[in-house]
UniProtKB/TrEMBL annotation:
This is N-acetyltransferase domain-containing protein. GO terms for cellular component: NatC complex. GO terms for molecular function: protein-N-terminal amino-acid acetyltransferase activity. Residues 42-194 form the N-acetyltransferase domain. Residues 1-36 are annotated as: Disordered. InterPro entries: Acyl_CoA_acyltransferase, GNAT_dom, NAA30-like. Belongs to the acetyltransferase family. MAK3 subfamily. Residues 16-28 have a biased composition (Polar residues). Keywords: Acyltransferase, Transferase. PROSITE patterns: GNAT.
Length: 199
């Protein structure tokens, strides 16, 4: 099942560029230590139950260009609740990432492939590395579950998202012509976790 990551709304990557200015040749593979992100006002947690579904849907529908049915949300969230990471401030949902993990057996070895399906951060909370933190936390969960690589799609016009993912170690894997419903092309991005995140 292929789900579009049509309009990944992450904060401008100027902060990530500053973080990586001393090591431009290497991906930033450590979770951010930005003091704003670590503020007690912002709380991160995995999906708890059906009562949170409506808030996730409203957030995604407000900021993503691709229309998703409730069945799509339930497919991802009910099957991989630990890979739906949410950010809240004073009880208000301000950002979330929705992912999946396909587990497989290759050459008698159990492995997994992660997929970042949706990501959104409320506009007034951007430029605080919340989107970056959500992605890092989801990737760390995938690693715990035995994931070896993560993929996603991003619009070719979404320069901020492409730059941010590049700084996190993702590489361009495939160009997808007219991938989205709005006829915009996309890049499929891939992150190899063994080389980028595992010590």
């Amino acid at each position: 099942m292929s789900i579009n990551n049509s309009d990944i709304l992450i904060e401008d990557s100027k902060n990530s560029e500053a973080t990586n200015s001393s090591s431009k040749d290497q991906p930033n593979t450590q979770p951010p230590n930005d003091p704003i992100v670590q503020s007690k006002e912002i709380v991160y947690h995995s999906y708890h139950g059906e009562e949170e579904l409506e808030g996730i849907m409203q957030l995604m529908q407000e900021y993503l260009s691709e229309p998703y049915s409730i069945y799509t949300y339930r497919y991802f969230i009910n099957n991989w609740p630990q890979l739906c990471i949410m950010a809240s401030c004073e009880g208000k949902l301000i950002g979330t990432v929705v992912c999946q993990l396909e587990q497989m057996r290759i050459d008698d070895v159990d492995t997994g492939k992660g997929y970042i399906a949706m990501l959104a951060v409320r506009e007034e909370f951007r430029k605080q590395r919340i989107g970056t933190t959500l992605v890092y936390k989801s990737i760390q969960k995938m690693i715990e579950l035995g994931c070896e690589e993560v993929i996603l799609e991003a619009e070719v016009t979404n320069k901020g998202a492409l730059r941010l993912y590049s700084n996190m170690g993702f590489i361009k894997d495939r160009y997808l012509h007219r991938y989205y419903l709005n006829a915009v092309d996309a890049w499929r991005l891939k992150l190899f976790l063994k080389s980028a995140y595992k010590n």
